[in-house]
Amino acid sequence: MGKSLLGVLLALWSWVWAVQPGEKLPPFVLLDPKGAEVTPETMRKPAVIVFWASWCPVCRAEFPGLHRVAEETGVPFYVISREPKDTKEAVLSYMKAYPRFIPLLASEKDKPHEVANRFKVLGQPWTFVVDGEGKVVALFAGRAGREALLDALLLAGAELP
Known about the structure:
The chain has five helices and seven strands. The chain is an alpha/beta fold.
């Protein structure tokens, strides 16, 4: 089987395996940069959750566009590194360029890469759009296009400008 076909099959299989639209968010307890606990129940919603890694070139390419959407819409974008080697310091340093993002960090109860496993995320970036009830309305494995993301935010109940 060719490498490209294998890649496509793996991507399709992993997308089907992940938390799907209509499903509630899996439980987690992470910390925001101020040390406050963030759970699916305490998150402001509608919201966007992006799993990323500091070394990921696709994440680096995608983040400026995602940040513009966060600025324009006022919807909270929670970013969770799925890389176990990304320290709190590395994450916070990286996020200085993206002040509208809310980085979620390890707590005594959870580590970000463990939360990624609970979402069944197999790569990065993976973006989940969540409605006011904490249900996933859209999933983007890989880059999330601007128009598709805005459409998903509308489905989630976001009031867009």
